[in-house]
Fold:
Amino acid sequence: MKIKSEIIFIIILLNVNFSLLYSQLHTLPDKNSAGEKGTYNLTIPAAYTFSMNYDFNNDGVNEVIKGVMLNKINENTFWVRNAEIKNVSNEVLVKLGKKIFVNNDPLISQIPALYGYIIEILPNKILVSIANEKGESNSDEIVINIRNIKQ
Structure:
C-alpha cells in the first residue's frame, strides 16, 4: 500500500513539473507590455530545448549552440529563443535573449525580440534577424562574425 501511494505521488510530481516546463516554454511577453511577463494567445510549434555542436569559426574546435528551438526551417536556418553560443571553455560568446549580446555586451540598440530570432548558420558567421509571431524574419539581418569574437 505504501509503495502504491509513493508511485502515485511521483506520477503527480512529474505531471506538475512537465506542466510547469511546458507553460514556461510557451509563455511570451504581452504585445502591449514593456517587457513584463505575460501571456499571449499564440500557436507555437512544439518547442524543445536543443544543443548542437558546430565549428562556427572554422578553427577545428566545435562551439556549442543551445537554447529553445521553435522550428527548424532548413538544414542551417532555425527559429530559436533564449539561445547561446559557447566556446569549449563554456564561456558565452553570443547570447540571443530579448536582446543580442556578444561577449556580454549588447551588440546593437534593438527592440526586445519577443518571439525569438531566425538564425542562419554559415561558415565563420551567423545571420540573425528578429522573428515575428509566425516564425518569419521581421527585421533586417545582422551578421555576427564568430571569428572576430574574443575566445
Summary: The mean pLDDT is 77. The two ends are 57 Å apart (CA to CA). The chain has two domains: 1-41, 48-148.
